[in-house]
Amino acid sequence: MPPSSTIPTVPIESAALRGIRGSAIRDLLAVTEQPEVLSLAGGLPATDLIPSDRIADAAARTIGRPDALQYTTSRGVSLCRDVVANIEAVDPDRILLTHGSQQALSLLAQALVDPGDVVVVDDPVYVGALQAFQCVRAEIVALPITRNGTNVGELSRLLERGVRPRIVHTVSNFHNPSGVTASTETRTGLADLAETYGFWIVEDDPYGRLAFDGAPTSPIPGERTIRLGSASKTLAPALRVGWLNAPPAVVALVERLKQSADLCGSTLNQLMVADLLADTEWFDAHIDTIASAYSLRAHALTSALDDEFGDSVEYTSPTGGMFCWVRLPGVDTSELLSVALSYGVAFVPGSAFAVDADLGDSARLSFATLQPDALREAVRRLRTATDDVVRLRKSPDAR
Amino acid sequence: MPPSSTIPTVPIESAALRGIRGSAIRDLLAVTEQPEVLSLAGGLPATDLIPSDRIADAAARTIGRPDALQYTTSRGVSLCRDVVANIEAVDPDRILLTHGSQQALSLLAQALVDPGDVVVVDDPVYVGALQAFQCVRAEIVALPITRNGTNVGELSRLLERGVRPRIVHTVSNFHNPSGVTASTETRTGLADLAETYGFWIVEDDPYGRLAFDGAPTSPIPGERTIRLGSASKTLAPALRVGWLNAPPAVVALVERLKQSADLCGSTLNQLMVADLLADTEWFDAHIDTIASAYSLRAHALTSALDDEFGDSVEYTSPTGGMFCWVRLPGVDTSELLSVALSYGVAFVPGSAFAVDADLGDSARLSFATLQPDALREAVRRLRTATDDVVRLRKSPDAR
């Protein structure tokens, strides 16, 4: 045997891993789990709105079914695929069930993207999507998002310059983190460009059912759109059931990758989701309950922002989903966060979602998990913290 | 906009995907699901031995717990990691929970292997492991497995020739598909080589608890061993809870990849597994029940092989797990399969598990899912099919 000195020293991790940005949000969540902190930081749905009794019923009913505890196919349980196909208004051969929609992002990135291929994302970006594309060493091009969703004008110019993305990713409804929803013009514009230039649109849509006015949202049209959905924000994250709705050729590619990723999803969890989603009368009422509660909470948050910050804050009024994106001109929100934590309030600084844009004065506030009174108190603490930061900036000697 | 003729035609799938072998076994399972077929083909545990009542209790108890339906951390629920750490007799910071142990294979491949890196596997191989390593474009080197497990002699010669694997993978106990168990000499030999040459041993161990004599198996020793475990073969596949037991530095790498792969596992399913595994008196008795039943089924299969095939079959007597590997000298088992299906019996031909070895006269027979009488009938049908194949080979004109 050779002496060990002849063995080359290699980095422990693969090259793929070295390209991934860690999630500042996830690291932050450890801090915000302290009970005295009012957290506007999380991306969790409200625990108090998770229908645990109805889920317990579904579990009890499902475990007794034959084969509920066995393996299923890599595409997922037929019954659940049929229910999802019905919701998506497509044929079941377009549906593959995933372990949360994050797995759909990860498998699509592996299926469709080679190292160096361009992937276009919004700036600010959903960090989970960024990580999935970084993991396959995509070249990320981030376009500043507009009030009408993905920046179709900038995308057109990029394409005209000869850039050829494989994928354009967006969270189309109640965008995480910016809160905006793609307009009809954005949707048709994206679909036209995708058709002309041959890229895939990945329409990531976990929040579409959570419109405050209850109005249904329209999917991005066209044959080049791959839609992702999830039960995490409407039923419960712990079910870990997401799905993709894609042309059958793409479904077949993702199916092969899912075999190697984890063989298949949970028969039990998928049957439970089928039971819950197929009970449309109950499910629609449950969605109304969540959307009404989130609407009240969003209103509590924004009126507190008006009351406490007045003209010194800019924000997009939420019309659904879980997030309000705010701008505090002149305030470094990363600096603000450490002061805010000392006052017992947490949020995610804009820089955590930035690719190229300077979002240092912005922040994502989640209104989903706190009750209105707690939201008002959180904003009061945020105001106090902001005052401290502004005062310190004006007279640094006071430090 | 340019005319569409200027858009390059690119293959739909990424290069990574083009390297993966489809699973012949999975494709086969579609055929064998017909009720009249007695299947020795599956890799499933016996449905009749899944403790569904006890699992229903665990579900009912768990859903009521606070946060049971929320997201968890990427490492998994602490309570479940603690229970697994106790079983593995290690510190919890070595444990990360995965979506079945297949996900542990897939994430380890991504974490530790760069394209072109050598990964050593057994021949025949567990196809799920092969797929995971092919997915990251590893250079696969397959060594013919011995009666004592991984071929340490061939591995030594490979290393002496200067080949430097990143990973050596094996199913150490009741190997899938070959049925063999690594001897003590194989284990210490592997550990010594790993220490000297700096590769990782991935000890894939889903079957270790299913020893027919109830004796505990010993893990492969050493600091370079990463152990994978699973609840799929002892509790239920649909729980989709597996784990890895690795040095904390490797756990940290896999954790980052798991964030991007699927954020986290199911809090609910992991809490249920914790409930079931922590009830050691019940769990040990349950393991005895499975192992006794599998032992009886294995005996029914091998005595039927003796009765029907006599000296024309060679096999390794199973001492645990779910599989019996047989050799029918002079018979092409792929050819046999199509005839066997017409007689209503299915199995997996050896070639489905072969990397470089010629295993065309071998087959994997699972004894887990059929009752003894059905196993005997399956072997009778297999004998009739074999007679047909042998007769056709001797007098091809009879076709």
From TrEMBL, chains A, B:
<dbReference type="GO" id="GO:1901605">
    <property type="term" value="P:alpha-amino acid metabolic process"/>
</dbReference>
<dbReference type="InterPro" id="IPR015424">
    <property type="entry name" value="PyrdxlP-dep_Trfase"/>
</dbReference>
<dbReference type="InterPro" id="IPR004839">
    <property type="entry name" value="Aminotransferase_I/II_large"/>
</dbReference>
<dbReference type="InterPro" id="IPR050859">
    <property type="entry name" value="Class-I_PLP-dep_aminotransf"/>
</dbReference>
<protein>
    <submittedName>
        <fullName>Putative aminotransferase</fullName>
    </submittedName>
</protein>
<keyword id="KW-0663">Pyridoxal phosphate</keyword>
<keyword id="KW-0808">Transferase</keyword>
<dbReference type="InterPro" id="IPR015421">
    <property type="entry name" value="PyrdxlP-dep_Trfase_major"/>
</dbReference>
<dbReference type="GO" id="GO:0030170">
    <property type="term" value="F:pyridoxal phosphate binding"/>
</dbReference>
<keyword id="KW-0032">Aminotransferase</keyword>
<dbReference type="Pfam" id="PF00155">
    <property type="entry name" value="Aminotran_1_2"/>
</dbReference>
<dbReference type="InterPro" id="IPR015422">
    <property type="entry name" value="PyrdxlP-dep_Trfase_small"/>
</dbReference>
<feature type="domain" description="Aminotransferase class I/classII large">
    <location>
        <begin position="37"/>
        <end position="382"/>
    </location>
</feature>
<dbReference type="GO" id="GO:0008483">
    <property type="term" value="F:transaminase activity"/>
</dbReference>
